[in-house]
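Continuing the series of single-chain predictions for the mutant panel. This is the parent chain; the variants come on the following pages.
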Amino acid sequence: MFELAPAVAPHTRIIPARRPSKKGGVPALAITAYAEHNGIGMGTLSDGSGYLTQRGLAHLCGVQNAHIGSISRDWQTDKPRIVAIRTRLERLGHEREAAHQVLVWDGRRQYSYDPVVCEAILDYYALEAGDHIQAEAQTNRLRFKRVDLGGWIVDQFKPKPEPEASTPLRFVPLATNAPETFEAVDAVILYICGLYALSVWMAATYFEGLKQRAMNASWNRLGLYLPLKAMLEIQAEAILRAQKSLSF
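Parent structure:
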């Protein structure tokens, strides 16, 4: 059993639904939209649910289209893989008289598989197919354990919001205020105080040196030591006062 489907489009392309004919043979469900997303044929039905095409399910399981077709053909038999798949459905409380429904889209028949059947077949090829276990089926099984397959199918047909245009970065220079007058005055005062303190320190060092030289000089023996010492002490006291005035 092979599915007739249009050529695979590189991107998802949603085709608007045609009104079903009013003549006899209208199915209970009708396809309302069809698309191929990354090579997976899928669509939505008139009851709001999603489905995969035979070719789309084969793509998801990593097998040939004919393998899925043979599952549908042998659905009422007791072949091991059919029993395994139907047992999985029964454990979940689902029973299907057929693996698929034959619906019409754009004048062509489609074999539509509902999400519950798709998951059971996907689980078979991921876990129970023996030598025919497919790595792609295992990957997709884990993927759709985290995301509901039926909801994912329906979401592919919802309008995608257009991305918002990103606002370009704008570099705004920081406002810099001109230095106020008092800042310049403070700088001048600090500079003058520094020079004054340096001068006092140099003077104190100079007089201390004179004092030591006078005390050690040989002419101090002539009686000039005491007057000279008094003069130096007076000068040293004046310098000390100047130093204290800088500690404000």
